[in-house]
Amino acid sequence: MNDLQKLIKLKGLSIRDVSREINQGYHITQKVIKGATYRKRDGSLVVRSSRNVEDGVAALLGLSHDQVWGPRASTYLRRHIRAEIKRQARRREQDMQEEWLHGDRITDKGTGGNV
For 22-31, which contacts have Cβ atoms below 8 Å and span 24 or more sequence positions? Predict the structure, then answer.
C-alpha cells in the first residue's frame, strides 16, 4: 500500500468513494492511485496516469497536484498521514472520555480517588 492509499484509507474513504467524489471511473481512479504500470509496445514500463484523476484526488484531499504527485509527494503525504493519525487519536481520546467519564477530563497530574 503506497502513501496515497494509506492517507485515503485513514480518511475513511474507499477508492469507490474517491472515484464518485471526483466524478471519474472506478478502474482508472484505482489504477492511478495505486500507481499501476503498463508495458508499451517497445517493452518499457509506464505508470498509469490521468491528469483529471490526479487533480481530483489532490483537490479532494485539500492538497496541490505537486504535493500528491510531484517528486516530493512522499514527504507531503507522510506529513498528512501523521497529522491525520494525531487528529484521529485526539478524536478517539475525546470519544472515550465522553463514554467513560461523561465529559470529565483526566489531568496528567496526580488524580485522586480509587486506584
Answer: 22/52, 22/53, 22/56, 22/57, 22/59, 22/60, 23/56, 24/50, 24/52, 24/53, 24/56, 28/53, 29/53, 29/57
Question: Which amino acid is residue 61, in one-letter code?
Answer: L
pLDDT digits (tens, 9 = 90+) for 94-105: 999 899 998 676
57 pLDDT above the threshold of 60? yes
Alpha-carbon dihedral of residues 108, 110, 112, 115, nearest 10 degrees?
Answer: 80
CA pair distance 43, 13, nearest whole angstrom: 35
Instruction: Please give the model's pTM, rounded to 2 decimal places.
Output: 0.81
**46: enclosing H helix or E strand:** strand 45-47
Of 59, 16, 54, nearest to 33 (Cα)?
54
Strands 45-47 and 37-39, bridge-based pairing: antiparallel
